[in-house]
C-alpha cells in the first residue's frame, strides 16, 4: 500500500522525499525583516534619514541568516543608533506583498514578513546617547504620528501607524497585510493618530481655579466602574478628546454645569459625583482649562452633537491610553496623578491594561463599588 501526503501546492500523491519537500518549501520562501518603533516622552516617533532613499525609515533592516527577528532588531539598533537594547515585545507582523514594494525585476523580490518591535519610550538621556554611523544614516528626528505619511513611503507609514495603534490598544501584536490590519480595532477603523493632536501643553495645577481666571474649557474624566474612562473619537478626523466644552452663560456659577451638559450632548452620558481636580493655565491668554472627574451612571444611544453635527464614536480606555490618544504634553503626568487620586477617592479600581472598547448600545452602570 502506497502512503500519500498533502503538500501546500500539490494534490494528494506519492509522499515527497525530504529533498523534494525542501525544494518545494524554498520555492515559496519570503524575505524576513524587522523594524523598531521608538517614541519620545511626547509620543513622537523616531525616524531615520538615510543616504540611499528620498524617504525616511524606522530603525531596522534585514534578518540575517541564522538570526531571529528580535536578534536582528537589536543588532540594527546597535549598528544604526549605537544603542544596546534588548527587544522583546512585538507590535506587528506585516506580510509585504510582491507588488507593494515596486522592486526591480532583477532583485527577484519574493515578498517579505516584516516584524515590528516596540523599542519603548526613550528618555532625553537615551536620545542624547544616540551615535550615528559614518555612512547610511544621515540624521534622525522625532515626528508626530500624523507626520509619518509625509516622511515615510506609504506602506511604511501604514505599518508604523498600525503598530503604534497596537501599542496604545494593549491588545498584543497585530497581523498586517501591506501595512493594513487584517482584524482592525476601533482605533484602526477611526484612524486615530492620523491627524495632528490638539496640544494642551500648559502647566497643570491640582487646585481650584483662581477667581480672576476666566474658564475657557471644561473637560471631564468620566469613569466606568472598571476604572476606565469615556473618550470620544471624531469619525471624520480620528481626533480624540474627553467629553466637555466651553462654559455657557446660563451655567455661570455652577462648575458642574458644563461637564454634565457636554457629556449629555456629545455622548448621551449621565454623570454623578462630579468634582474638580484642577486646571491647565494658558500663560499667553490668561485663562483656565478645567478638568473634572466623575462617575458614569448611564449611556444612551449615540447622539448627534449639536455643536458639530457629528456623532462621536464612544470608547472606554484606561486613563493612560486616553492621554496617549489626545495629549502627551509635559504636564500630562501631573494631571494623571490628580485624576487617579480622585478616582481612588470615589472608590473606583485602577483599570487593568486592556484593549480600547467601543460603546455602541445604551449602558446602565451599577455604582456600587467595593
From TrEMBL:
User: What residue spans carry the region label Disordered?
Assistant: 1-20
Matches recorded under SUPFAM superfamilies: Nudix
Residue ranges occupied by any Nudix hydrolase domain in the UniProt entry: 29-165
* InterPro entries named among the record's database cross-references: NUDIX_hydrolase-like_dom_sf, NUDIX_hydrolase_CS, NUDIX_hydrolase_dom
UniProt-recorded Gene Ontology molecular function terms: hydrolase activity
Task: Kindly state which keywords UniProt assigns to this record, in alphabetical order.
Answer: Hydrolase, Magnesium
What is the protein name stated in its UniProt record?
NUDIX hydrolase
Q: Which organism is it from?
A: Streptomyces zaomyceticus
Amino acid at each position: 500500500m502506497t502512503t500519500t501526503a498533502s503538500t501546500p501546492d500539490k494534490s494528494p500523491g506519492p509522499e515527497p522525499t525530504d529533498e523534494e519537500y525542501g525544494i518545494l518549501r524554498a520555492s515559496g520562501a519570503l524575505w524576513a525583516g524587522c523594524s523598531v518603533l521608538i517614541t519620545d516622552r511626547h509620543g513622537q516617533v523616531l525616524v531615520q534619514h538615510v543616504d540611499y532613499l528620498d524617504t525616511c525609515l524606522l530603525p531596522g533592516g534585514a534578518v540575517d541568516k541564522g538570526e531571529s527577528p528580535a536578534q536582528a532588531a537589536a543588532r540594527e539598533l546597535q549598528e544604526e543608533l549605537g544603542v544596546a537594547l534588548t527587544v522583546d515585545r512585538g507590535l506587528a507582523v506585516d506580510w509585504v506583498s510582491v507588488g507593494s514594494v515596486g522592486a526591480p525585476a532583477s532583485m527577484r523580490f519574493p515578498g517579505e514578513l516584516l516584524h515590528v518591535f516596540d523599542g519603548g519610550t526613550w528618555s532625553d538621556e537615551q536620545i542624547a546617547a544616540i551615535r550615528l554611523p559614518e555612512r547610511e544614516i544621515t540624521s534622525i528626528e522625532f515626528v508626530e504620528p500624523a507626520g509619518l505619511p509625509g516622511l515615510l513611503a506609504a506602506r511604511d507609514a501604514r505599518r508604523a501607524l498600525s503598530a503604534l495603534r497596537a501599542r496604545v490598544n494593549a491588545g498584543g501584536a497585530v497581523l498586517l497585510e501591506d501595512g493594513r490590519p487584517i482584524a482592525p480595532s476601533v482605533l484602526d477603523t477611526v484612524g486615530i493618530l492620523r491627524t495632528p493632536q490638539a496640544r494642551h501643553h500648559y502647566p497643570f495645577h491640582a487646585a481650584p481655579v483662581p477667581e480672576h481666571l476666566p474658564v475657557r474649557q471644561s473637560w471631564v474624566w468620566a469613569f466606568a466602574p472598571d476604572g476606565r474612562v469615556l473618550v470620544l473619537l471624531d469619525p471624520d478626523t480620528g481626533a480624540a478628546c474627553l467629553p466637555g466644552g466651553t462654559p455657557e452663560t446660563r451655567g455661570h456659577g455652577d462648575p458642574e454645569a458644563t461637564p454634565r451638559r457636554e457629556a449629555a450632548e456629545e455622548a448621551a452620558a449621565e454623570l454623578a459625583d462630579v468634582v474638580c481636580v484642577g486646571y491647565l493655565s494658558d500663560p499667553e491668554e490668561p485663562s483656565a482649562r478645567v478638568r473634572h472627574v466623575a462617575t458614569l451612571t448611564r449611556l444612551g444611544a449615540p447622539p448627534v452633537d449639536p455643536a458639530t453635527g457629528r456623532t462621536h464614536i464612544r470608547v472606554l480606555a484606561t486613563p493612560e491610553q486616553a492621554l496617549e490618544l489626545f495629549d502627551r504634553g509635559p504636564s500630562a503626568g501631573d494631571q494623571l496623578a490628580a485624576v487617579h487620586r480622585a478616582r481612588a477617592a470615589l472608590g473606583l479600581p485602577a483599570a487593568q491594561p486592556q484593549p480600547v472598547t467601543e460603546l455602541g448600545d445604551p449602558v446602565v452602570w451599577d455604582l456600587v463599588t467595593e
